[in-house]
Amino acid sequence: MDVVVFGATGTIGRAIVQEALKRKHEVTAVVRNPASLELEDERLQVTTADILDPAAVAEAVRGHHEVISAFGPAAGRENDLLRAAESLLEGLQAAGLKRLLVIGGAGTLKTESGEWLMDTPGFPEKFRPLAEAHGHAYEIYSASSLDYTYLSPPAVIRPGRRTGQFRIGLDRLVVDENGDSSISVEDFAVAVIDELEEGNFSRTRFTVGY
């Protein structure tokens, strides 16, 4: 499979690229600074493009099969998530692509109480603008005609081990027997590439966790 990955230099984006390459997919990593990726593979191509520019998006994805966005905005520029969503939709349409996997946020996942995670006591207030922006971006994707999949991480995601063992949920936070919601970055990347290959969650959202 031939996949384009936006946000390939971030922690999650880099893990997605590595997992895709591990499974022998052809990967085009879209970055701002090619030197920052520091990955080499015969199946990897690196290109530059601005995800906020629909014409640049169209140029980057044209001729490829699937697109993954792991774009994350700079602090204070959370609304760039909305601009990126609109740009991706316009750019993919111009290029004739219909399939998009988006790495979103966990803030609008439901907890056991039925509340959104970002509305629960203890949710860090400094992360609320980002959580709200992710929620609005999800609305943009879900209102489109694109064949999108929106993958929300659990409450905690950090580098760890690749086990390939995790559970899947839809719009409700996946928690373990202790009430914790977490996954390693490596296993999250496994879930992303599983969806790339299997396409089980067309035009919907899902989440994962241990």
UniProtKB/TrEMBL annotation:
Q: Which domain of life is it from?
A: Bacteria
Among the Pfam families in the record, one is NAD_binding_10
Q: Which InterPro entries match?
A: NAD(P)-bd_dom (IPR016040), NAD(P)-bd_dom_sf (IPR036291), Polyketide_Oxido-like (IPR051606)
Instruction: Kindly list the GO molecular function terms attached to this UniProt entry.
Output: oxidoreductase activity, acting on the CH-NH group of donors, NAD or NADP as acceptor
What CDD domains does the record tag this protein with?
BVR-B_like_SDR_a
Please list the residue ranges annotated as the NAD(P)-binding domain. 7-195
Q: Output this protein's name.
A: 3-beta hydroxysteroid dehydrogenase
